[in-house]
Amino acid sequence: MRNKLIILAGSSGSGKTTIAQKIAEKFKKSQVQIICLDHFYKPDNILKKMFNNHPNHDHPSSFDWKLLKSVLRKLLFGQLADIPVYDYSTNTRTTKSIKIKPSKILILEGTLALYDKVIRKWASLKVFVDTPLDECFIRRLERDVTERNRTRQSVIKKWHQTVRPMFFEFVWRESEIADIILPWYQTNPRGLETLFNAMETIIVKK
Question: Considering the domain 4-197, what is its CATH architecture?
Fold first, then answer.
């Protein structure tokens, strides 16, 4: 493969997106491409059939792994790829897509980004962002209410029904297969520096 894949996994609200952005800031803009696992949810009509009209967006089977692997393979080998667009306000995958260019560093971030065995094998570095669940919940609550037009009640309900249970059933296990566990309560400059150094070593080896 021509390009390098870095995977960031961890609970919803753990800080994965923030860390991905800090990595992107560390390197040249043309060198880094960030892909969010959320954009690869299966279409909503399929999820409703799978989960008896109550989609569980925190379960591994909710993602279109075949499509994700196809996209990653293209980008890692230096080809253009189309990324589906996900609408957080409606919890649905839209019919739109975005064409993105390959880059030297490809970052895949998502709660279950380390779930698929094949994708894990492609990764040059696997990172688990470790943040206390109570902090993750507060962040998710604030984010979903202010940015995604959700009610406090709906966010709390979803946290208890799917987010928290799926974290303990699937997400937490990813910490056992990560190369680096990055504690991230508010910020962790020393941990970030360790991550940057690891990435620079990987890039040099290319």
Answer: 3-Layer(aba) Sandwich (3.40)
Residue 193 burial (CB count, 10 A):
11
User: What average pLDDT does range 13-37 have in this prediction?
Assistant: 91
Contact call for residues 137 and 159 (beta carbons, < 8 A): yes
Supply the pTM of this predicted model. Answer: 0.93
Task: Tell me which residue of 105, 44, 109, 41 sits closest to 78, measured CA to CA.
Answer: 105
Cα separation, 158 vs 122, whole angstroms: 32
3-state secondary structure at position 33? strand
89 pLDDT band, cuts 50/70/90, is: confident
Matching residue, tokens 């890692």: 76
Query: Do 83 and 94 contact (CB within 8 A), yes or no?
Result: no
| Calpha distance 1→206 (Å, rounded) | 10
